[in-house]
Design goal:
The protein is mostly helical. 48% of the residues lie in helices and 0% in strands. The protein has one helix and no strands. It has one helix spanning 57-108. It starts with 56 loop residues before the first helix and ends with a helix.
Length: 109
Amino acid sequence: MLRPKLPTMPQPTGHVTPPAAVIEPTTITPGTPAPPSTPVAPASAPVPSRPTVQLTPGTALALVGGGTAVVLVVGAVLVSMLLAVAITAASVAVCAVVLRSLLASQHRR
């Protein structure tokens, strides 16, 4: 159903010049395969494949400050949404009470 569209190769534009010399294919003769080399254990500590991350007190403080800011902003947004829902519910309840009293007073007359 969902298939990726593969890009097509664009056609060359402009004037294309042929190569100056004709290249003829050569035959490949297989040689003797080289024996697999065994890894040699280094005498010192192994070198990690990726760099280590060093946290200085300044970067740690910046990370804590950024995380705190994110938590405060998300909390403020959620509290404001909850407050908006509560105010809407209260106003709908007041409207329902007013409509109910209007309809009840109309039936009494």
